[in-house]
Amino acid sequence: MEARANETQVQYHRRRAEELKRVRQPWEATWTGLADFVAPHRLRLEAADERAISRKRILDPSGTFAWRTLASGMHSGLTSPARPWFRFATVDPELREWGPVKLWVDEVENIERRMFQRSNVYPAFHEGYGDIGLFGQSCGILIEGGDDPLHMIQLLHGRFWIARDAEGRATTLYRMLRWSVEKIVRRFGLETISSSIRSAYDAGRYDQTFDIWHAIEPRHNRDPQKIDKRNKPFLSNYWEANGGAGSSGDGLLEESGFDSNPIICPPWLLCGDDSYAQSPGMDTIGDVKSLQAMVRDKLEVIAKLARPPLQGPTSLNGNPMSLLPGAITFVDDPTGKGLRPVMEASPQIGPLLQDIGETRQRIATGFYADLFLMLSNMEGIQPRNQFEIAERKEEKLLALGPVLENIYNNQLEPCVDRAFEIGLKRNLFPPPPREIQNERLAVEYISTLAQAQKAVATGAVERLVSFAGQWAAMKPDILDKLDADQTIDVYADMIGAPAAIVVPDDKVQEARAARAQAEQQARMAQMAKTVAPAISAGASAVKAGKEAGVDPAAAQALMARLGIGGA
Predict the structure, then answer these.
(1) DSSP letter at 40?
(2) What is the pLDDT of residue 489?
(3) Fewer beta carbons within 10 Å, N or C terminal of the chain?
(4) What's the gap between Cα 334 and its chain centre?
């Protein structure tokens, strides 16, 4: 979208912001209910200020625990900083195995992994997975850092508005920042701010807050021949919510841009052309609310069992009495019944506890907590057989398959691509080999969850090799049907084994040729060692024959016929 001819850039941004607000408004009530009963700190609507978050509606935190398990499980399963979770591949798989290319790609992978580890990307990922599971999407901005190459700005729901393109990728982001005067002046300087912020700064009210807006969206009216910040493919503009014109004349605090889309906004499940997504939290919120009501009833039942409501004669009205343990109350009671419970029947708490347990289980299933805690929740003797564990895990991962694809395409791949661009810009990578220059690298995911999804294929390879091994006991030449080298390469690729431990094909051929040559030389040496005694014996026989008067030529011919000497 572009500004109209009769409006300034800030006027355009304010008009666009109102349009985005209308799109998001129907979702806000749903988000509020989710936050109130699961994670109140993850939602801050436009009018809310920073404050301590109340959790008074959460009597049973089972929903919060299951949501927390989902966030931690996805983080450790998809983007664990403790192990590699992505690698690069070439268009030609054989080129990836060639020595110089393999070394260069491995080095680039290690550099980019260090870029992620030095930044705040991993903590932001963890927060984002929680937002995806609760609200349906997370939203962050991956920018170039200062001392660290990367920096992720993770946004709170309620403070941002988005629009997606036809492919479902978020390309437009408007966010509202509630910044202090000190932060505003430090970021934008004194020349561009409005008179109200300048007055607060001059008066020393450095912690007074003002609303600042930030917009990121495609810049259509740009000159591709220019590389300055006002002609970058994606604009990045800041302005005051209620400010006047700054030095730029149209109220912009800052006008800049990005070379590529910095918005990282993966959805859980998009319906049609929606900008905002569905989530597991929306599936389980009914059970979460019901659980609070059931727990409230359970507490009431327990309170009535421990301290039941009492009834007694009217003579006790106004007379001192005590219900404390060991206390005595003296009263004239002609009925002889004294104090007694209003209800003689004992409430049945068992069915209520059973229903609470079933509700908690449904909540855990809805948040996929049973998947990530599968081993600890297994019934029977622990630990189970590793093949049984793998089979059950593969079965449960089928439900997460479509969601993982969304995260791969809308979070991980954009992050890896943008980190690669920033690494190139900062000259962090070594020069590529001539054979791979101007070639595009593909991203492959080798995290725990990605490998588990591929485990079905590895099972097929294992079964084939096992089947061939069984047949080889009866028919050894059946192994000629298997390509052992290709089997190792395919299996290593499926399980995400480090490329450094798999020897390239050219080096394998060199090693085998050297081994064959060494074996041939050893055989020749052994033959020479075997023949040498016979040659020595033949020479001694010739000498003895000569001394005995035997014709040497005849003796030599005899040795040749026997194969122990030359003709």
Answers:
(1) G
(2) 82
(3) C
(4) 75
Q: Specify the higher pLDDT residue, 538 or 262.
A: 262
Confidence tier at 309 by pLDDT (50, 70, 90): confident
Report the C-alpha gap between 535 and 531 in whole angstroms.
6
Considering only CA atoms, which of 280, 227, 232 is closest in space to residue 256?
232
Give the end-to-end CA distance of the chain in Å, rounded to a whole number.
99
pLDDT, mean of residues 303-322: 74
Q: Which residues contact 110 (CB under 8 A, 6 or more apart)?
A: none
* Half-sphere exposure (Cβ direction) of 193: Cα atoms closer than 13 Å: 23
β-sheet bridge partners, residue 210 = 179
* Chain Cα centroid distance, residue 13: 33
Distance between CA atoms of residues 174 and 441, nearest Å: 32
The dihedrals phi and psi of 547, each to the nearest 5 degrees, come to: -65, -30
CA distance 5 to 12: 10
Q: Is 324 exposed, middle or buried (0-12, 13-18, 19+ CB in 10 A)?
A: exposed
What's the CA gap between 7 and 10, in Å, rounded? Answer: 8
Q: What is the pLDDT of residue 247?
A: 42
**Continuous H helices in 79-192:** 93-96, 99-118, 121-135, 181-188
Model pTM score:
0.79
Q: 263 with 153: CB under 8 angstroms?
A: no
- C-alpha to C-alpha distance for 333 and 483, rounded to whole angstroms: 99
pLDDT of residue 567: 47
Looking at residue 161, the DSSP 8-state letter turns out to be E
Q: Under a CB-based contact definition with an 8 Å cutoff, are residues 278 and 31 in contact?
A: no
DSSP for 371-426, written as a single string: HHTHHHH--SSSSPPHHHHHHHHHHHHGGGHHHHHHHIIIIIHHHHHHHHHHHHHT
Residue 318, Cα to own-chain centre: how many angstroms? 67
Q: Which of 191, 281, 215 is nearest to 15 (CA)?
A: 215
Neighbours of 80 (CB within 10 A): 15
> Which of 27, 57, 252, 66 shows the shortest CA–CA distance to 162?
27
